[in-house]
Amino acid sequence: MSDQTGPSPTVPYWHLWRDAEGVSHQRQCALTAFELKGVGDAAPQWNNRHERCESTVVVTVQPVGWVGEWHENPAPQWIVVLSGRWWIESMDGTRVEQGAGEFSFGEDQGCRSVDGRKGHRSGTVGDQPAVLMTVQLHIPPVLRPCHKA
C-alpha cells in the first residue's frame, strides 16, 4: 500500500494570460488544491478538481518546422504535450519550451496588437512533430495569472 500521509502535491504548469492593457505574458504556476479521495472503490488518490463547464477536446499534430505566427488561443484551454516538443512566445518576449507530459493553460484572448504582435507565437522544436491535446473551456478568460489552483 502506498504512503498516503505525505503532503498534498504541487503540480507545475505555465499560464499564458493577458493583462488589463491587452499584453500577453507567461508565468509558472502550480496546481495546489488537491484532495485525497478515492474514485469509486479505488484507494484514495490526490485529485485537483476544476469547476464543471462545457468543453471541447482537440488533438493537434504540428509538423516538424511548424510555426504558428501571432494568434490568440481560440478559448481558455489546457494544452497537454503528448509527444514531441513545442515552444510558446508571449508578447512580453517570454519563450517557454515544453515536452511530453508538460502542460500549460492558454488564456490570451482579447489581446491588442503591439508592433504586429497579438497573443502569442508557437512552433515545433526538433525533428519530430509535436502532438498536443487541448481541452477548450467554454468560459470567459480571467485577467490574472495563476488563478487555476
Largest sheet, order of strands side by side? 2-1-10-7-12-5
Helix content: under 10%
The count of domains is 1
- Rg, alpha carbons: 17 Å
CATH class: Mainly Beta
Number of strands: 12
CATH T-level topology: Jelly Rolls
- Going by CATH, the homologous superfamily would be Jelly Rolls
Shape descriptor reads: globular
Question: Structural class, from secondary structure content?
Answer: mainly beta
Question: What does this entry look like structurally?
Answer:
With 149 residues, the chain is mostly beta strands. It has a single domain (11-137), classed as Jelly Rolls, CATH 2.60.120.10. The chain is 0% helix and 48% strand. It contains no helices and 12 strands. It has strands spanning 11-18, 24-31, 35-37, 45-47, 55-62, 67-71, 77-83, 85-90, 95-99, 103-107, 120-125, 130-137. The strands form 3 sheets. The protein has a 6-stranded mixed sheet with strand order 2-1-10-7-12-5, with no helix packed on it. A 4-stranded antiparallel sheet has the order 6-11-8-9, with no helix packed on it. The protein has a two-stranded antiparallel sheet with strand order 3-4.
